[in-house]
Design a protein that fits this description.
This protein is an alpha/beta fold and about 180 residues long. About 40% of the residues lie in helices and about 15% in strands. The protein contains 7 helices and 6 strands, in the order H-H-E-E-H-E-H-E-H-E-H-E-H. It has a 6-stranded mixed beta sheet. Strand 3, helix 4 and strand 4 form a beta-alpha-beta unit. The two termini are about 30 Å apart.
Length: about 180
């Protein structure tokens, strides 16, 4: 997405200013492995392409993920309610053309409970659940084949999980039926 492109541009510009070997910089960028749980492509499972992005613990990082991935059919979001301002995030989900293809939004936990009533439900399915297991079940039942299901909470995971890693690991287990 654009956020990665901006990071790459910064690295290349800094490397140039520092006089570093740009061929080595290009090779490093080419072989870069992103962090686990940051827009991590789990692959296609039963016809659905799952992504886990539990490191996205604020609305801005989830917005970057939504802009970066085409074909998102299902978004799973929510976590600990830290009283963060979600107005811009809700506005994006309700009115931005980039979010119109998201047919299913599954809201969870404290922030999900707060966001759920604000989401435009015309032409899309919106659910609230207090269980990740139920969210994955809904995603499996409702995500269209050859489309993306993205877990990107836009909130901390510390209300029900130790951290984003535990939440991401549990999501992976649920998706692959290894819980």
């Amino acid at each position: 997405g654009d956020h990665y492109l901006k990071d790459i541009m910064f690295v290349v510009a800094l490397a140039d200013v520092l006089g570093l070997d740009l061929d080595k910089v290009k090779e490093t960028i080419k072989n870069f492995k992103p962090l686990e749980y940051r827009l991590e492509d789990m692959g296609i499972i039963d016809g659905i392409n799952y992504y886990v992005d539990t490191i996205a613990t604020i609305p801005a990082t989830t917005l970057c993920s939504l802009k970066a991935l085409p074909n998102i059919d299902t978004l799973i979001l929510g976590g600990e309610d830290r009283k963060t301002d979600y107005d811009h995030f809700i506005e994006f989900l309700n009115n931005n053309p980039a979010s119109k293809n998201i047919r299913n939004i599954i809201c969870m936990y404290g922030t999900g409970e707060r966001i759920y009533p604000e989401l435009n439900k015309e032409g899309r399915n919106v659910w609230y659940t207090n269980e990740l297991k139920e969210a994955v079940k809904l995603a499996k039942e409702n995500t269209a084949q050859n489309k993306i299901c993205l877990l990107s909470p836009a909130a901390s995971s510390k209300d029900y999980f130790i951290d984003y890693r535990e939440k991401g690991k549990y999501f992976k287990c649920l998706v692959t039926n290894q819980e």
